[in-house]
Amino acid sequence: xxxxxxxxxxxxxxxxxxxxxxxxxxxxxxxxxxxxxxxxxxxxxxxxxxxxxxxxxxxxxxxxxxxxxxxxxxxxxxxxxxxxxxxxxxxxxxxxxxxxxxxxxxxxxxxxxxxxxxxxxxxxxxxxxxxxxxxxxxxxxxxxxxxxxxxxxxxxxxxxxxxxxxxxxxxxxxxxxxxxxxxxxxxxxxxxxxxxxxxxxxxxxxxxxxxxxxxxxxxxxxxxxxxxxxxxxxxxxxxxxxxxxxxxxxxxxxxxxxxxxxxxxxxxxxxxxxxxxxxxxxxxxxxxxxxxxxxxxxxxxxxxxxxxxxxxxxxxxxxxxxxxxxxxxxxxxxxxxxxxxxxxxxxxxxxxxxxxxxxxxxxxxxxxxxxxxxxxxxxxxxxxxxxxxxxxxxxxxxxxxxxxxxxxxxxxxxxxxxxxxxxxxxxxxxxxxxxxxxxxxxxxxxxxxxxxxxxxxxxxxxxxxxxxxxxxxxxxxxxxxxxxxxxxxxxxxxxxxxxxxxxxxxxxxxxxxxxxxxxxxxxxxxxxxxxxxxxxxxxxxxxxxxxxxxxxxxxxxxxxxxxxxxxxxxxxxxxxxxxxxxxxxxxxxxxxxxxxxxxxxxxxxxxxxxxxxxxxxxxxxxxxxxxxxxxxxxxxxxxxxxxxxxxxxxxxxxxxxxxxxxxxxxxxxxxxxxxxxxxxxxxxxx
Length: 686
Prior knowledge:
- By secondary structure, the chain is an alpha+beta fold.
- The chain contains nine helices and 37 strands.
- The chain has a five-stranded mixed beta sheet with strand order 4-1-5-7-6, covered by helices on one side. A five-stranded mixed beta sheet has the order 14-16-21-18-19, with no helix packed on it. Strands 23-35-28-32-31 form a five-stranded antiparallel beta sheet, with no helix packed on it.
- The longest helix is centred in the C-terminal third of the chain and has 26 residues, at 631-656.
C-alpha cells in the first residue's frame, strides 16, 4: 500500500494476562454512532472460546495497548519487501476475496477513521517479510482457498482494482486490536458487508492469534469472510437449551462458523444459530446465494458413467487435480490392455475439507474396488485388471460440507487412454509447492507420539543452563538465569515420516519465569514457525502422560527430522523441560494417524456438555469446563473471568450507564473466593 503519513506513537509495556477474542461484540465494541452497528458479527457480551481466545492465552498473548502501539510504530508505512507472492485460487472468477498481508489503510470503517493495519509480522520487523513469514502467508492463503474452493470466487493476495459490492471483499491481516479498535478482539467484520451498504472489509488481528500462527489466522480469516458473505454463528443446542453460541464440534471436526481452533478439520455446516434450535443456517446455500452473486464453481469433470471424462494420463502415468463440489463426484473412463493399476487420491496439503473416496468400476458400472480408509482424508487403490474399459470414481465420503480439492496420482500398466486435464487449470489444489509427479512411497508405520525430556537423548544445550530438581515433567528442569544471553536448548526428533505434527511443551509456572520465552520449530534446518510463550503460568492446554502440556502449534515437515529450540533471548528465566510431538496428518494426503480422543481438558473453551471422565470433579465458569485439581488452569481461567467481568462492567457503564453492570462490591466478593494457589504452585520452582 501507499506510504502512511500518520501513525500513533507507541511505547513498550509489559505483557499481561488479558481477555482476547476472535471477534468483537456489539455491546463491548460498537460505537453507538455507527449506522451499521447492528450488522457487526456479534451482539451482546460473551466469554465463549472463540471470542475470549481461551486456550490461546499462553501463546504470545495480545499485549497491552501501549505495547501494541509500539510495534506498529516500527512500520514505515511502505510496502514490505520482498513483496507478497501473487497467489490466485481461481483466476477470472466472478468475485474475489483479497487477503491483504502488506498493510492497509481505511479512511473510514463504520464510525472509525484512519484505520491503519500494519503488515503481517511474526518477527518484529514490519518493513520486510522473512522466509518464514512468506511461508506463513502461503499457508494462510492455501487454507482459506481450500475453504472457498467450491465457489466461483478467487481467493487471492492481489488487490482488486476497487472494492465493489457483490464483486470483491477484503480481509486485512495484521497488528492488534488496540491499534485502533480499542476492545479485545482477534477479528471483526460486518455481517453481509459483501452485499449490503456496510463495509466490504473485515480485519484479523494476528497478534491475538498465536503471534500470527498460520492455522489460527486462516481460521479467523475464513470465519470473518463468512460474516461478510452473510453467515452468522453455528451454535450448540441440547433439548431446546442453548449450550453455546459457538458449536465447538469435536477433536476431529468443527464448523467454520463455530470454534475451529482445536479441531483437526473444519468445514461449512448446516445447523442451528443462536436464534432457536429450529433456526437452521445452511452455510453453503447462503454463500452460493443470489445475494452474493458468485455461486458455485463450474463442474470440472463428468459425474456419471455416461458423461465420464477421459482419464487424464500420459502413457502409464497420471497426475492431475480436481474439485469435488457439494453432492458432486468425478468419473473418469480409461481403457487398458491389461495390467496393474495403482492410484493415490490426495486431499489438499493443508486445511483439507474433503474426505475422499476412490472407486474402480467395470465397463458396466459394477464396483470392483473401493478405498475409503477411516484414518485418512485421501485413499490408495491397487488392482490388477484384465483388458477392457474401466471407470475411476472420485467422491466425498459423505456428510454436509465434505467438499474440496484433490490430486490424483497413479500408474496404469497397459493404459491406452491419452488425455490432458481440463483447462483452465483452476482445479489444481492450492498449495505452496506443486504436487509430486509420482505416487508417494509408503513410509513405515510411524510412532504417533514422542516425548523428549530435558534429561533424555535428543536434548542438547549451549550456553549457561542450570538444573533444578523436584519440578518438571520427569522431576527436573533446565533453566537460564535472567538476563543471560546466547543460551539455547534444543529437542531434536529424528526418524520421522513426512507429515504434519502437533508440538507441545511443558513447564512449571513462576513469576520469576519469562513471559515471552521464544520457541522456534525447524523441519531439518528450515525454520517453519516461531511462538513466544508465557512461562509465568504453567503449561495448561491439555494433560497427557501425567504432564501438563501447552500447544505450540501444528507444523509440516517433508524430511525426517524436527527440532524445537528455545533461547534465552527474553526477560526472566527461560525454562526447558519436555517437548511432545504428535503426528496428526500425512503431509500430502492428510492422513489421520491413530489420533485418539484428547482429554476433555485439552483446551479452554470446551463446551460444558463435553463428556466427563469418571471420577473427575468438574466446575464451570460460564461455558468453560475445568478440573479444579489443576490449580494453575483454574486460577488463570478464574482470573480471566474476573478481568472480563471488570471490562464488561466498565464498558457497560460507558455505553449504558450503571444499570445492568456488575457492581464493584460483587466483583470484589467474587475475587475473594479465588483459591490462593499461586504461592503453592511456585514452591520449589524458584
